[in-house]
Amino acid sequence: MPPRRTLLEIDGHVVAADVQLRDDGRPPVLFLHGILATLELAPELFVDPEAESWIALSLPGHAPGRLPPGRLPRLDVDLFGQLVETALDRLIGSQTVIATGWSTGGFAALTLAIRHPRRVAAVATFAGFAGGRLTGSIGWLTWLAEGWLGAAGVRAGLTVAAHLPPLQRLFMRTVTADSDALARAPAHVLARLEAAVAAHDPRAVAAVLAAIRRLDITARLGEIRVPAWIVGGDGDPLIPAATTRAIAAAIPGATLRLYPDAGHLFFCEWPGFREDFAAWRRSLPGPGSAPATMLPIT
């Protein structure tokens, strides 16, 4: 059975959710994707996605979700945390989750664990960050998007890229560790990412890119008191290994995992990732709460 797709209106924002819940007593895995990506990457976390209980949410402004109409809202730490918490409250009530996220989604997962600690039973980041001063191609785009002229260029570039998958592949090469990594990416994943870029609103994505440089929860990482798995590639051109190490060092008791000779793409550059993720979840304390139950969407 495919996951259930739901669109949630939250203070003018629309957040998309893919939901698959199993009545097995475990907290579901929450997955938050990265910039320009899609919630449809969630199945790539699991050895057997159909056997797992999970919820995937879209980042602000990312299709099939969207920003509020009219003037662009302020995209700050509070918003990232509140959109996720409100969406979860409508979907599963007070049930706890294992909060996970890739790249910008990793930042959002950490933010949820800090701002809404009762929601999070454990947290994991995959090439995530705590402060938005990124490097590489995405870092350059975030800098460019902060200025009026640069933002116009980013919007134009995204519009062109939506119709040119080869240009998207060229960009994805800038986030991998070596020239062979992209060739290992599953065709269905590349197709999902290309469809996502075509579906995203360039104006909204440019606004999120501009906001990333203002996001910083570094000083609050020590407040996270749940099990944490901080994972990255030691050749990631966007999130240096030193950044991943620093996040793990700042969270009490966190487990660090760096994949050798690997870049930013967890779904093709990190051999054994799915098995390692499953093993980490098996190591967590028992759920201690009732199974998640879908609530009516209002």
Describe this entry's structure for a reader.
- The protein is globular, with a radius of gyration of 18 Å.
- A hairpin with a 2-residue loop joins strand 1 and strand 2.
- It has 298 residues and is an alpha/beta fold.
- Helices cover 37% and strands 16% of the residues.
- The chain is built from ten helices and eight strands.
- The longest helix has 16 residues.
- The chain has a domain of 196 residues: Alpha/Beta hydrolase fold, catalytic domain (Rossmann fold, 3-Layer(aba) Sandwich).
- An eight-stranded mixed β-sheet has the order 1-2-4-3-5-6-7-8.
Radius of gyration: 18 Å
The first-to-last residue Cα distance is 24 Å
Compute the number of helices.
10
Question: What is the CATH top level name of the domain at 4-132 and 216-282?
Answer: Alpha Beta
Into which percent range does the helicity of residues fall?
25-40%
Work out the strand percent.
Answer: 15-25%
The rough form would be described as globular
| Strand order in space, largest sheet | 1-2-4-3-5-6-7-8
* CATH homologous superfamily (4th level) name of the domain at 4-132 and 216-282: Alpha/Beta hydrolase fold, catalytic domain
**Average pLDDT value?**
92
CATH architecture descriptor name of the domain at 4-132 and 216-282: 3-Layer(aba) Sandwich
Poorly predicted spans: 288-298
How many strand elements?
8
Largest sheet: 8 strands, mixed
Structural class: alpha/beta
**H/E element string?**
EEEEHEHEHHHHHEHEHH
Here the CATH topology of the domain at 4-132 and 216-282 equals Rossmann fold
